[in-house]
Structure formats: C-alpha cells, structure tokens
Amino acid sequence: MKKLLILFALLAVIKVNAQPKYKVQNIPPINPKEWDIPKNDTLDYEFGSYQGKKALLIKRKIDNYKSASLAYPKKLIFKDGIIEFDLAFAGKGNGYIGLAFRIKDAHHYETVYFRPLSSATINAIQYMPEKKAEFNWWDYEADKYQASAILPANGWFHVKVIVTGRKLEVYVNNAAKPAMVYTSLDPSLKSGSVGYWHGNSSIGAYRNLTIKTLE
Predict the structure, then answer these.
(1) In terms of Cα–Cα distance, which of 149, 179, 144, 143 is closest to 161?
(2) How is domain 23-214 classified at the CATH fold level?
(3) Is the pLDDT of residue 13 over 70?
C-alpha cells in the first residue's frame, strides 16, 4: 500500500510539472503611434464606451462583404499561448467581429470571428487564414471551419483562444469546454502580432486584450 501511495504521489508531481507554463505578455495601451489601427474614408475608430464599459469602437461607414480590418500592436510577437478579450456587436445590420493572431500584416494572419446574429447555429464562429488583399470568407464555409455558440446579439461576451502549434481551441463566456477545436492552422502563418478583427460590421466594441505566451 505504501509503495502504491508513493507511485500515485510521483504521478501527481509528473502531471503538475507536465502542464504548460505561461507568462503574461504586456499589451501596450492602445496608442495610434504604437498600434496599427485602420482609419480612412470608409473606416473610423474612437476610444469611447459601450454599455457602460470603456472600449475601442471600430466603425465601418460603407457596407462591404469583402471587408476585414485589424487593430493590433506593431511590435508584439506571438506564436503559441492564450489570448483573451471581450467584444460586442454594437451596431445594426451585419455583425462580424473577432480576433486576429500571428499577424504578419493587414492581409496575412489567422482569424477567429463571431457572428452574434447567427447565435446557436453552425455559423456563429468561423476560423480562417487570410492571405489575400480581399477577405475571401466564401472559401472557408465548410463545416470544419465553423462552430456553434450562444452569443448575445448586441451584448458583451468573453472569448478565450488557446493556440498551440497547429491547434486552436475557442472558449466563449468562460465555458468549461471549447465551442470550437480546429487542428489544421495554416503552416505558413507561424508567428506575429495579436489584435482585434473587424469585418463587415457597422460598429464593433473591443476591450481587455490579454495574452499569455508559452515560456
């Protein structure tokens, strides 16, 4: 019995030591000089609030189904780890809001985005790699790129994304189980920045970006 207890104790120690170790990566406050934030004739942003919470508000002035824009710190480098943030669709009409990671530039990155108006359907979450000047979501409409989740139409929700190698796990609102698991991330997009992704939406609200990288 004593030997068995010792064996269990050793296994427990091994299990604890085998858990991945993460360190919090400091995210600079959103400063237009240090962040790449889109602003042009069709897109604008402001540091405002939504439903009583301070947030970055990204506003698209003209509806365009090929639109996709990023806001991210220029010097951040991310490969594997945990990304968390809060977001909300704060406008009317289309709602496509989310996250970009391993960002090389405005047209080369991985994205997980959410469709709050498609809550509880297979279209609620979509993953895709972006490597073209125009956002070609129609090439990634197969079920393997999408997942169901319960999302508020216009309210805040929390997202946690775990990236390890070519594996992606997406958790919504602190759920114990992932809403989406995808195991074939694009091998050509290995590292880069992390930031907010804004699709064909009138207004998206984004806040509390936190990153933990593997040590």
Answers:
(1) 179
(2) Jelly Rolls (2.60.120)
(3) no
